[in-house]
Design a protein that fits this description.
6-stranded parallel β-sheet, single chain, globular, 2 domains, Rossmann fold
């Protein structure tokens, strides 16, 4: 019997039973469970080739080894779900001359980057994607308007957070401002906004999904953390914050969305830069507050106003938690993605080819 393949790449560790109290549930393990599928590619899949494959993938910034393994075993599967372009692009390249015999569903995050624009223009690998899912409406529209994908093959779904792990904590001290994350973070603007305020601030300039580092010169009241913390330690930092700030450079994809959703799930008040990629997630003044990108003055005004407004922080934090429970949680996201895969398999009869449908 053929089963769906969930292609996550990155040589992730295979899930070992249900998520314990020490970590959130992960999207790929929930999707795999819902689809009764197979996860690729874990460290155990490679054994001898793991170290070499990891080095090659890091150099190329792609999940080539995972794509090669999936292509080699394609007869075992009824569909392939690539959870990022890093695995979807090499798989599409490997199958460009000979189409995949099963539907290929792709969760895309940043289709409009310069490298992908040039790649898709010269080698239209995106035409091998049978269905595309985006967690940013502007990226979904880009796929339709600029890449020519039919609207019926493109979905926007809210990104996810494990609402069971990230939830309000009883021991919330609310003594400091917190900023979390690394990708596209404009910490320079945040530090300028904090000058002369003496507000205690913690910046966790680290990411599980980004290997880059950042060098920041901070005043004494700002503490910079660059080491990787456990999930429970990160949750404790959220719990102790009075206000969370996510300063972003102007980007058109959902950079910062993990920090935004974790903050909202914890019912913490949030100030985030009003950039295109994150507008889907915040109703200004209701589930968070926007600050003008690159404006230390406006960011400072928002921080100082909210620091002393207990009622506003409580109201918006509660609204944010409710938005997560209704629209932006892991269970809903996993169900939405699994439903797309299930429909694609049903429509394909396990032998779907883009050639059988309208050209794109």
């Amino acid at each position: 019997m053929q089963i769906p393949l969930i292609l996550v790449g990155d040589h992730v560790k295979a899930p070992d039973g249900p998520a314990p109290q020490t970590r959130p549930r992960l999207d790929y393990e929930e999707i795999t469970r819902l689809l009764a599928g197979e996860l690729c590619c874990t460290q155990s899949s490679f054994v001898r080739l793991y170290t070499l494959g990891q080095r090659i993938d890091q150099y190329l910034r792609l999940d080539l080894m995972a794509a090669m393994l999936a292509a080699r075993r394609i007869a075992r599967y009824s569909a392939i779900l690539s959870l990022s372009e890093k695995s979807a692009i090499p798989l599409a390249a490997l199958s460009y001359a000979r189409r995949l015999p099963v539907p290929h569903i792709v969760v895309a995050h940043k289709l409009s980057s310069g490298q992908k624009v040039h790649l898709f223009r010269s080698w239209p690998l995106h035409r091998r994607f049978n269905h595309l899912i985006s967690v940013c409406s502007s990226q979904a529209e880009y796929a339709i308007a600029n890449l020519g994908l039919p609207r019926r093959r493109v979905n926007f779904f809210y990104d996810k957070v494990d609402q069971l792990f990230f939830q309000p904590q009883a021991d919330s001290s609310e003594e400091y401002i917190l900023a979390v994350g690394l990708e596209q973070r404009d910490y320079g603007t945040l530090l300028q906004a904090l000058q002369g305020t003496h507000l205690q601030t913690i910046i966790l300039a680290n990411s599980r999904w980004n290997a880059h580092s950042v060098q920041l010169q901070a005043p004494p009241h700002v503490k910079i953390l660059t080491s990787r913390l456990s999930y429970t330690d990160v949750r404790s930092l959220y719990a102790g914050a009075r206000l969370v700030v996510v300063p972003l450079y102007p980007v058109d994809y959902a950079a910062g969305v993990n920090s935004v959703l974790e903050t909202m799930a914890m019912a913490k008040p949030l100030v985030v830069s009003q950039v295109v990629g994150i507008r889907d997630y915040i109703v200004d003044g209701e589930t968070g507050w926007f600050a003008k990108p690159g404006s230390p003055q406006h960011l400072r005004e928002q921080i100082m106003r909210l620091w002393s407004d207990d009622a506003a922080r409580r109201r918006v934090g509660a609204n944010a938690r409710q938005a997560v429970l209704q629209q932006m949680n892991l269970d809903l996201y996993a169900a939405n993605v699994a439903n797309v895969v299930t429909q694609a398999v049903a429509q394909s009869g396990h032998g779907f080819s883009p050639a059988n449908d309208a050209p794109i």
